[in-house]
Amino acid sequence: MEHIWKKVKKTLKSNIPDHSYKMWIEPLELYKYSEVNVVLSSPNFYSKKRVLGQYSKIIEKELIKVSGRRLRLLIETGNNKNRSTKSRSSKYNKLPGLYKEPQKDLPNMGYSSTTGKMLRKNYTFENFIVGKNNDFAYSKAHSLASKNNSNNTPLFLLSKIGMGKTHLSQAMGYHILDHFPDDKVFYVSAEDFKNEMVNSFQKGSINKFKKKYRNNCDVLFLEDVHFLTGKEQTQNELSRTLDHFFEMNKKVIFTSCFLPGEIPKMNEHLRSRLSYSLVSKMHTPNFRTRVRILRQKAKENGYIIPDEINKYLAGELSENIRQLENGLMRVSAKSSLLGVPIDIDLAESVVKHIIGNSKNITIDAIKKIICKEFSMSMTALVSKSRKQSIVRPRQLAIYLSRQYTDQPLQAIGKSFNRYHATALHSIGTIERELNRKGPLLKQVNYLCEKIESGNFQ
User: Which long-range contacts (CB under 8 A, 24 or more apart) does 135-139 make?
Assistant: First the structure.
């Protein structure tokens, strides 16, 4: 049966787009078989769901054609999953001084990398919509994460804010941890790297810092590398770290809004290292891709949106993916609150506010509205207090800042004196409560109306 399955895969490879084949068909393995059944092993539940939904009929047809008898296709995930979980647990036990057991995931998140940021549960290759604007970046990212070749040239994901480079880089981290659980993956922002290095100098533990990155890391994700502009000492340390990575043939993935040659105040050694990367630019999605993104986001969040509304939003909200998500959320929330159907009139009212006031909405403006509505001071809002009367307004402010501004999560977190992971947790908390359509939905809709009115006083 093994040779039959190989023939089937060869045929499928010639009939399915290359990126789809690599993502969904290539990982499938022959698990067991009988006279009437063929059981394939899938790496995870999401893969199994997609294969059964889109490719099961063509696979089954080819199995019958090649074998010459009637066969039924079945797919299981448990075999690979158990092995992966066991390996992942042993990975953490091998890292003295980090974790004795895997770090607990925060809600709405999936894997945690060995160090640095949490990887969001829904930021996977499966949920990433591939279009002409990002197909090259997707193919290279998936190939690097899957170890399809021995060439470990660094990948440099380039795009404006809100185009999906964080999603794609986290999908790579998620994929590596899922398929190669013994690899030690570090996912950090350039700002986190700088702060950690400065703190190590201050505490006299710089050698420990160097050892951590050079000896205990197999894959390094460095987000928003342009943040290092003008930070000469950090640039020098990163350059030496990258030299070690390249010598050891380890993987490095950068993200940035600027080309390596366009980042100001960058020393030539580091600029040269960044320029050595394979630059994969992600452009603004076209209309068809925006429609597909809206459908995917609606599915993820449980929204029921008529397709004509998706097409209307895709036609009007073309700035970036984040703007699309905001429009989708506002349409669903407004419909639920007012008890009216989702139609063109409702969608037009939402789009009018988003486009009309988006340029004037800042994090500071959102802070002012939150402080006024909750009768609290700006000092209290950004304080370290964990009182519920302060935590909830702060979570709302962080959530709304993500929805209405183009600022990255690091900048939003910093504005509230919070780390990236805390900001992400706040956004996840609000999103989950909104999905329940409880009292918070009305409160958020009211705050959105205030923000979109442009009256920030």
Answer: 135/19, 136/280, 136/281, 137/165, 137/168, 137/280, 137/281, 137/282, 138/19, 138/168, 139/18, 139/19, 139/22
- Alpha helix (H) residue ranges in 55-132: 56-67, 78-93
Domain ranges of the chain: 2-76, 99-281, 287-453
| pLDDT tens per residue, range 340-390 | 899 999 999 888 877 766 556 889 999 999 998 888 999 999 999 988 889
CA separation for the pair 420, 256 (Å, rounded): 17
In terms of pTM, does the model score above 0.90? no
| Bridge partners, residue 281, by sequence | 158
Contact 128, 138 (CB under 8 A): yes
- CATH code at 99-281: 3.40.50.300
Segment (H or E) for 20: helix 18-20
- Please tell me the CATH code under which domain 287-453 is placed: 1.10.1750.10
Architecture of domain 2-76: 2-Layer Sandwich (3.30)
Our measurement of the distance from residue 50's CA atom to the centroid of its chain's CA atoms, rounded to an integer in Å, reads 19
